[in-house]
Structures
1.
Amino acid sequence: MAAEVIKTTNLNYTYPGQKPTLDGVNMTINTGEKVGLVGPNGAGKTTLFLLITGILKPNAGQLVVFDQPVIPNTFNPKVGMVFQHTADQLINPTVREDIAFGPHNMGLDEEEVNRRIKDSADLAGIQHLLDRPPHHLSAGEQRLVALCGILAMEPCLLIMDEPTSDLDIRYRRRLIKILEGMQDKTLFIASHDLEFILETCSRVILLEGGVVCADGSPKEVMADGSLMEKHSLEVPHSLMSEWHRHNQI
């Protein structure tokens, strides 16, 4: 039986003066799963990620990650998150220093830090950028650097918020190849790029109004035209034939 990586029970979060952003979220993600998180703007996807990483504190409900309740503002080296806006992560003078930031803060020795810099840079194909200032890079390059900074910490759970934004076709394909090779990690990915979710995830959770509205196979969930339209989403182009077949039955 697969071990639980994330388990939420009636999870709630409300920003001051607003309606609940998350309003009773119940879900479980197990070891090795590749899960996509979809939903319209304002559905609560990023908020859910910030709760899982301990950046925000729930107003109510339970949130357990790797069998331990999440303690707000406490670093968990098993969990790594690539933020939607790379400027939130790239803070050092060079790419090399940015990738080293996490491993250094984990207390690793210099030899191990250098190994992790090399391994993550080799994986992403950005070795030639290591001595460049991050703010001189293209948006796509910055996104890969941000990913490397997280991969260098070797987390067991990798969370990614809109990872294909700013990526051209070449870098998008490179990211897909990187994720395909992560057989030993659990992935939780929020994206409006539904074709990307289809390629990288074996399960999808649809979130809107702060609740889970659907949970299942990406092809089954995202080929349901009525469901997608109800939640302000469109059936991915590659699933249109499946959608037509479903509607002819």
Note: The mean pLDDT is 93.
2.
Amino acid sequence: MKQLDIYEELKGNSYPGRGIVIGKSEDGKSAVTAYFIMGRSVNSRNRVFTETEDGIKTEAADPSKLSDPHLIIYSPVRVLGNKTIVTNGDQTDTIYELMDKQQTFEQSLRTREYEDDKPNFTPRISGIMHVGDGKYNYAMSILKSADGNPDCVERFTFTYSNPLNGVGHFIHTYMGDGSPLPSFEGEPKKVAIPNDIDEFTAKLWEALNEDNKVSLFVRFIDIETGKAVSKIVNKYSK
């Protein structure tokens, strides 16, 4: 697969929606993830990422402007033991709870489908990172309708064992802006991952569409020690 420049990919798409990047830093020392959200409506733009005990959650920047919490208030990132779960919805909790009961990532997601936001039927995108004993692997998933037909749920899981240094994969909800919004197509895009969290955070944020970007989360996890360093950027403040 051809490796793409993630910054150019983002600059070329005014509305990729929500996106997940997972990979390994160029020096091979860090497991890396990034998650961003965008919005077109007042309700979806009225959000910030805040840290929690085991990850992050979305909250209303201005609670008085929150008209509908459904599908926009959730925990995008949670940590379960040596596993970091990253998703674009409340399936984070589904994965966390069912994997805690010894089900697999894929089994957990078989209980869910695309979002109930007719006519978009937005895909549910998810990722999981396993970091332990000096080893690292990850998987990504997309649950979507069949080209906008809600009668069929399409489920795809992509696994990456012993990821290559400097390589990551990027999956997002929409191919671009539109009405209805066109769902992501194909497998996760191969992208480069740098060594520096500050560089990665700054360049991702700069590349996202200025009008539509809302929040960005980036985490680097030391593969040897499991120690994590995170960055959050919010366009709107509480």
Note: The helical segments are 6-11, 42-45, 91-99, 105-109, 197-207.
3.
Amino acid sequence: MLKRLVVVVSMFVLAACGSSSAPAETELTVFAAASLTGTFTELGKRFEAANPGTKVTFNFGSSATLAQQITQGAPAGVFAAASPATMKTVADAGLAGTPTVFVKNKLEIAVPPDNPAKVENLKDLTDPEVKVALCAEQVPCGAAAVKALDAAGLKVTPVTLEQDVKATLTKVELGEVDAALVYRTDVIASAGKVTGIPFPEADQAVNDYPIATLKDASPLARRFVDLVLSKQGEDVLTKAGFEAP
């Protein structure tokens, strides 16, 4: 009888312990600017390797679109934006922690490798014979383009306005336009599909990239942000052409 009582008590203790321990978080969703696709994919792989059993899912796109999705209730643990303005949208809604600027990025003129329009500088983009793609003004790469063109006192009439920098770059890669204003990092990531032309006015339109954990995020979110802010994260990002803040 005593032996049976001990077994029953032991089973009760084990059951109680099991019910009181919460399951470990193993999934993390990160919303990140399209220009971070390559670097964050690499950091995601490193994060999963350092946290066995963890799965990181990314949603890459226009920072403005991502901010809208978050404020409309899309579930995510981390938001990395291509501008403070888009991060502010989320922070003002009470959905983000204190953001930290982790990198900077600047524009270059992207042209096809053979540069058929013979573009050499920003002024060449004002030629009506030159087909130019720009990001829409409401997204960070578009806002930066407007700022750079204003600094140069130039007016460019694009043949297309795209919703993120990857779509803008693709127009050049496919030969649909003669040039586009995109981030330097996207030129590097194209691996020779386009040629980048630096221009001095880009220094007047440098974009800060903030990152923050989102409301009710799991501890995994904080650990991912810590990775991005670490020396390891900085090395991956600067190798891709980003600048340290």
Note: The chain is about 40% helix and 20% strand.
